[in-house]
Amino acid sequence: EGPVIQEASTRALSTGVKINDIFDMVRRLRTGDDAVTIPLVFMTYLNPIYVFGREKFFTLCEEVGISGVIVPDMPFEEKGELASIANTHGVEVVSLIAPTSENRIEMIAKEAEGFIYCVSSLGVTGMRSEIKTDIKSIVETVRKYTDIPVAVGFGISTPAQAEAMARVSDGAIVGSAIVKIVAEHGENADQALFDYVQSMKQAVQKAGA
Q: Which of 138, 148, 189, 196 is deepest in the core (most CB within 10 A)?
């Protein structure tokens, strides 16, 4: 991970945040008059799921309404170890395709579920001033083998970048830029987050994604 996500992880650990706390947060989001009804996806790592217990983890995912998980450090060849349990609870394991996937794209795409996370750049997470990877070519290759949505992530932080990625794919994934806003504003991040996400959403919609 890049520094923004590393610092966020450190803040969470230093305040005693546990996996059950995250599930409780999702429960709150899913209840009440203003309940969130759109699909929600967890992005995590393999070790927390194994330590927590795979069956317990995906049982709770189903209970609170999590539609999928993204596990960046899990090789595609080991996906079955999670998917076999996740799928029984209605949770899809999202596959990642990177610029280095090349000959593995067909194999990954044919087994993909939910959507495909297309990694825009090599290296760690974080905001980038420009994205040089030929994303259009990668997405076109993916679409030879599957018709599920392809969203591009890693380094996207501006409306212009989001629009550019959405023009060649089905959407843009943003992480570090949002986490940075939370770090800067803390508990008062609501309006800043709303304004930022709205600007990114409008950019993606402008592209027709």
A: 138
3-state secondary structure of 172: strand
Tokens for 96? 């990642």
Here the tokens at position 139 are 């997405």
Q: Per-residue pLDDT tens for 175-207?
A: 999 999 999 999 999 999 999 999 999 999 998
Cβ contact 141:169 at 8 Å: no
Q: Is 60 exceeded by the pLDDT of residue 122?
A: no
Contact in structure between 138 and 99 (CB atoms under 8 Å): yes
| Bridge partners (DSSP) listed for residue 43 | 70
* Residue of 25, 117, 23 whose CA lies nearest to 62: 23
Q: CB-hemisphere CA count at 13 Å for 119?
A: 20
The CATH superfamily of 3-206 is Aldolase class I (3.20.20.70)
CB 117 within 8 A of CB 94: yes
Provide the CA 198 distance to its chain's centre, in angstroms.
Answer: 18
Three-state DSSP class for residue 33: coil
Instruction: Yes or no: say if 128 and 157 are a contact pair by the CB < 8 Å rule.
Output: yes
Helices (H), 65-134: 79-86, 105-110
